[in-house]
Amino acid sequence: MRASRSGRLLRAAAGVVVLATLVPLASGCSLTSQPVPGCGAIQRLGLVAQSVPTAAYIPCLNPLPPGWRASGFQAASGHSQFSLRSNLAPSQPVQVRLEAACDVAGATATTPRGPGVSTYTKLRTISPRYSGTLIDVFPGGCVTYQFNFQRGPHIALIENFESAVALYPRQQLAVELHNRLGITLGP
Fold it and tell me: Does the pLDDT of residue 49 top 90, yes or no?
């Protein structure tokens, strides 16, 4: 009897923590003082997942390549976003944004970054700077990566940010939140 009561108390406490985290999100407030969620931070990923509750994938950070840093994390109703900055292009951060829908008109299909994902590149310029948007589209959402790099190091910089940002399956996140914390990720 005592073990089941303590289990219920732990689940209730975890639910309160998640609720306290999600209340600012539901009210439309952004959360900018927290670091960008890593792919192992399931509670933080739950916050991102709730910002676009239809998204089949959630962007998260793998370990960053040397010389890169992440900042500016914001989660609000309808989107989440953050920036990636390389010491090779310090004045031109990559803007990463999760939304429910993206415009791929005029974009070129490229190699998909995951199962069930369509990936596109929409270039604005190729000289003297290589700038544009990489777009990952999946059921219920998309992630855009806006970049603007000097030609030359642009290929390595694009490879770096593509490897830094992973797409975490929402279904897997829902299972992990439920199994580890007893939390149900809606919908």
Answer: yes
- Which residues are CB-neighbours of 43 under 8 A, at least 6 positions away? 17, 18, 21, 177, 181
Tell whether 187 is covered by a domain. no
Q: Is residue 122 part of a domain?
A: yes
Q: Are 56 and 139 in contact (CB under 8 A)?
A: yes
Instruction: Say how far apart CA 132 and CA 143 lie, in whole Å.
Output: 14
- The total number of structural domains in the chain stands at 1
Instruction: Average the pLDDT over each of 9-18, 81-90, 156-165 and give the range with the smallest value.
Output: 9-18
Question: Which CATH number belongs to the domain containing residue 148 in this structure?
Answer: 3.40.1000
62-97 exposure pattern, b = at least 16 Cβ within 10 A, e = fewer:
eebeeebebeebbbbeebbbbbbbbebbeebbbbbb
What's the CA gap between 137 and 116, in Å, rounded?
9
At 128, is the pLDDT very low, low, confident or very high (cuts 50, 70, 90)? confident
The verdict on residue 20 lying in a domain is yes
Instruction: Determine the residue type at 25.
Output: L
Domain that holds residue 139: 2-181
* Residue 68 CB-half CA count within 13 A: 22
Q: What is the pTM of this model?
A: 0.80
